Amino acid sequence: MRKKHIIVKNLTKKFGDREVLKNVSFEVYEGEVFVLMGGSGSGKSTTIKHIIGLLKPTSGQIIVDDVDITKLSQDELIEFRKRMGYLFQEGALFDSLKIWENVGFYYLENTKMPVKEIYKLAQEKLALVGLKGVEELYPSQLSGGMRKRASLARAIATNPEIVLYDEPTSGLDPVMSAVIDRLILKLRDEIGVTSIVVTHDLESAFDIADRIAIIHKGVIYAIGTPEEIKKSPDPVVQQFINRLPEGPITKEIFSDIS
Ligand SMILES: Nc1ncnc2c1ncn2[C@@H]1O[C@H](COP(=O)(O)OP(=O)(O)O)[C@@H](O)[C@H]1O
Ligand SMILES: [Mg+2]
What we know:
Layout: E1 4-15, E2 18-29, E3 33-37, H1 44-51, E4 59-64, E5 67-68, H2 74-80, E6 84-87, H3 99-103, H4 105-110, H5 115-128, H6 144-155, E7 162-166, H7 174-191, E8 194-199, H8 202-208, E9 211-216, E10 219-224, H9 226-231, H10 235-241, H11 248-255
Parallel strand pairs: 3-8, 3-9, 6-7, 7-8
Antiparallel strand pairs: 1-2, 1-4, 4-5, 9-10
Helix pairs in contact: 5-6
The chain binds adenosine-5'-diphosphate and magnesium ion (MG).
């Protein structure tokens, strides 16, 4: 039986009196690529922000490696996060640092590793995401897609056991999306990394997922293998995966107009 690496149990989150996650529960196994898919505003980013402890649940548990991270102090959390890589949806590179410094940031800040070695490590990680010769540039000198890939290089710089990707392929051209998808699988197959990939890119999701969860308005509607998801009888799931303009997801949006 494979180990449960991440357990999200009855996660509920309110911002003010708006409930944006409602009893969200799922489990991610070690070495699995778990895709969390849903429309814009469905609660995907909010969910993974809880898994790295950037947000505290209103109620519910987040267990990573057998530790309930909602109970950790700020210092313990910072220590714990070292084993997780996180690719922010917005990229979130430091504008005033060069690309290699961004990628090597953890080592520059927290270790006595010689700068030359950090530079080399950054170069290797950048090469993995298809970026060469950008080490000395600043984020503003890169295209959006390149910045995204540089952020990904930073997310994997510390060889984390868990990587959380928030829309890793949005804004990338099809070929670069395929490069990133392949990298996610390579990290799983060669290092056994556990991944959660947040996306609304159906093609990419079905390509890379071991299992998929479909979230809509803070509620999980289905969890299963790509094949199981395709066969799901749930109307929300079917509307989403078949890109249908009409169905339960859009019912409320159009009810005002018609
Ligand atoms: N810090 C916040 N304060 C208030 N509302 C928020 C905050 N973060 C997210 N939300 C709301 O929660 C919902 C889910 O957001 P999010 O998780 O970012 O969606 P997704 O990543 O699926 O597009 C949205 O309606 C969003 O406006
Ligand atoms: Mg998001």
